[in-house]
Amino acid sequence: MYLRKLDYRKNKMESYKRLFENNRKWVEEKKREDKDYFTRLSEGQKPEFFLIGCSDSRVSPNIITGAGPGELFIHRNIANLAVHTDLNFLSALQYAVEVLRVKHIIVKGHYYCGGIRAAMSSEYYGLIDNWLMNIRDVMRLHEKELNSMQDNEQRFRRLVELNVIEQVNNVRGTSVIQKAMRNGSAPLIHGWVYDLHEGLLKDLKVEI
Ligand code: CO
Questions:
Q1: Are residues 100 and 190 in the same domain?
Q2: What is the pTM of this model?
Q3: Is residue 169 part of a domain?
Q4: What distance in angstroms lies between residue 41's CA and the mean position of ligand 1's atoms?
Q5: pLDDT in tens, 102-113
C-alpha cells in the first residue's frame, strides 16, 4: 500500500516535471531561431485579436490557430461565456479594446463542450449550476428551434453554435463595445466553433 502510494506520487511528479523540461527545450529552440526573441517579447504586446474561449484543455487557441506569444489576448472560462456582470471578463474586454486596441474579438465555442452538455442535463452539479444558468437562458431563448430537433446530438451541436451567437450579442451589448461603436473604433466581433473531432475551425459568419 505504502509503495503504491510512493509510485503514485512518483508518476504524478514525472508528468509535472515534464512541463519544465518542455519549457527549457522550447526556450533553447526559440533562442536558436532568433536570439532576441524573448527580449522583444518583454518590450510589450500588440495583439490584433481578443479571444473568448472555453477552459477545456483540448481547445487551446494558440495551438489550433498557430498563433505565437503576443498574437492573441485571451479570456477563458467554462463554455466561453461573455457575462455582463463578470468583472474579470469586462476588465479583459476593456483592456483589449481601449488599451491594446484589438482589431477583432472572437467568441470561440467548441463541439463536445462539457459545460454545454451539463447545462442540457437536469443533474445537480452544485456551484457551477449558477454559471450554467447563462446557457440555460440561451436554451430558453431558442426553445422552439432546439425542441424541433429529434436527435440529441444534433441539439447539442446546435446549442454550442447558438451559445456562441448569444455570447457575440452579449459582447456587443457591453458598455465597452457600445462606447467604442459611438467613437467609430469598435473591433469586429466574430463567432467561431471549433470541431474537436476534425480539428477544424468554423466561422459562424455572424460578424458585428
Ligand atoms: Co467547453
A1: yes
A2: 0.92
A3: yes
A4: 30
A5: 999 999 999 999
Residues 97 and 196 in one domain: yes
User: Facing residues of 52 across strands?
Assistant: 75, 107
Q: Is-contact 194 201, C-beta < 8 A? A: yes
- Tell whether 64 and 38 lie within a shared domain: no
C-alpha cell at 119: 447545462
Determine the structural domain holding residue 8 and report its residue range: 1-43
Neighbours of 177 (CB within 10 A): 20
| pLDDT tens string 11-42 | 788 999 999 999 999 999 999 999 999 999 99
Asked if residue 154 and residue 63 are part of one domain, the reply reads: yes
58 noted as active-site residue: yes
54 is catalytic: yes
Q: Assess if residue 73 is contained within a domain.
A: yes
